[in-house]
Design brief:
By secondary structure, this protein is mainly alpha-helical. It contains two helices and no strands. The chain has one domain.
């Protein structure tokens, strides 16, 4: 399976939630559906955390350089 995007995972998770809310999931499929939802939530959390770290790395050097740059003193 190709790597999914955050948007794809979120869309699939929303579909699962709708099915659960509308009681469209058969009892025989419930455990597997909940497991899939759990994996999607974990994927989304990891993606958000990784993105936040990347953004902080992009922003952080600008902040630290301005404090340590002797030309700005």
């Amino acid at each position: 399976m190709a790597e999914k995007t955050y948007e794809e995972a979120l869309q699939k998770l929303q579909q699962i939630v709708r099915k659960l809310e509308n009681r469209e999931v058969k009892i025989d499929d419930l455990a597997q559906t909940v497991l899939e939802a759990k994996e999607l939530v974990e994927f989304c959390r990891e993606k958000l955390n990784k993105t936040e770290e990347e953004i902080n790395k992009i922003i952080a050097p600008e902040n630290s350089q301005s404090d340590d740059d002797p030309l700005l003193d």
